[in-house]
Design goal:
With 301 residues, this protein is of the alpha/beta class. It is 50% helix and 13% strand. The protein has an eight-stranded mixed sheet, with helices on both faces. α10 runs antiparallel to α11. The protein is globular, with a radius of gyration of 23 Å. The N and C termini lie far apart (63 Å). 33% of the residues are buried.
Length: 301
């Protein structure tokens, strides 16, 4: 089967390579000529324009977008529309808001195009481990694309599925990432507590290795944590600055709209926001209030 991929970052490139190894034809475009040249060197087809991307694919075409969420997705689709034909499919494999995916589906369908939203997890490890894919969209295009999903998944029968109509794939991926926030926060707090118990001289990397086998808290995330601690046990040279790409915020917004209590995911998001605040004003306010009512010491900057 043929697939076009737009966006040959680490994840997009690894997806292309996994598909090539499974016997699928891949045509890739990226604004980086170096990236497209690298794709060609590995045995796929790297092109330097959207026109060439479309020309190298047979109808009905399927083009997978691996571009940042928001305006870049709309802009890329708008540039592709005049080049493509009825029956062609756009697949958004990025972390778009599910409401945007529903809108794009509804805008493209009357024009004769198909739109599939595919929440994709696996990151830089997908080439080796396969990708977890949560697929949303109409039955016909999803069923037609099943050979692509089967090749990208951990196995032809595991790690992926058609979870619902348009928007469902990105909605499920949004919640997936919200859960990820909470798991990461719990691990971080637990290891911080153990590190603070200096009298026991605990080896955090050793403990992470123990927990990887047989423990109820074992996970791939813990595997990656153990690897990170092995490389840098004290996390030297790192700042306590944690970004977020939006999905955690969207999950919290949805929980509020649906009247669902989600305190762990919400607090993990707040902690990420707090990590970016230098000389936190909230904490300075707390110090001032304690000083005012109780005469407690205030540490001067």
């Amino acid at each position: 089967m043929e697939l076009g991929i737009i966006g040959l970052g680490k994840m997009g490139f690894n997806m292309a390579e996994r598909l090539r190894l499974a016997g699928h034809k891949v045509v890739g475009f990226d604004f980086s000529a170096e990236a497209t040249a690298k794709l060609t060197q590995t045995g796929s087809i790297g092109v330097n324009s959207l026109e060439d991307l479309v020309k190298n694919l047979q109808a009905p075409r399927a083009i997978w977008l691996m571009v940042p969420a928001g305006a870049p997705v709309d802009e890329t689709i708008a540039k592709l529309e005049p080049l493509m034909g009825k029956g062609d499919t756009f697949i958004d494999g990025g972390n778009s808001n599910y409401k945007d995916s529903q809108r794009r589906h509804d805008e493209l369908k009357p024009k004769g195009f198909e739109f599939v939203d595919c929440g994709t997890s696996g990151g830089i490890w997908g080439l080796k481990e396969g990708y977890s894919m949560m697929i949303g969209g109409d039955d016909e295009p999803v069923n037609r694309l099943m050979p692509i999903f089967e090749a990208l998944a951990p196995s032809p029968t595991t790690g992926f599925g058609h979870v619902g109509p348009s928007g469902a794939g990105h909605f499920v991926k949004m919640v997936h990432n919200g859960i990820e926030y909470g798991m990461m926060q719990a691990y971080a707090e637990g290891f911080s507590i153990m590190r603070a118990k200096e009298a026991l001289h605990l080896d955090l990397e050793q403990i992470s290795q123990i927990w990887r086998y047989g423990s109820v808290v074992r996970s791939w995330l813990l595997d990656l944590t153990a690897d990170a601690l092995k490389k840098n046990p004290n996390l030297d040279g790192l700042e306590a600055y944690v970004t977020d790409s939006g999905e955690g915020r969207w999950t919290v917004f949805e929980a509020i709209d649906l009247n669902v209590s989600a305190p762990i995911i919400t607090e993990s998001l707040i902690r990420r926001l707090r990590s970016r605040e230098e000389n936190n004003f909230t904490d300075r306010m707390l110090a001032v209030m304690r000083n005012e009512f109780g005469g407690h010491a205030v540490k001067k900057a």
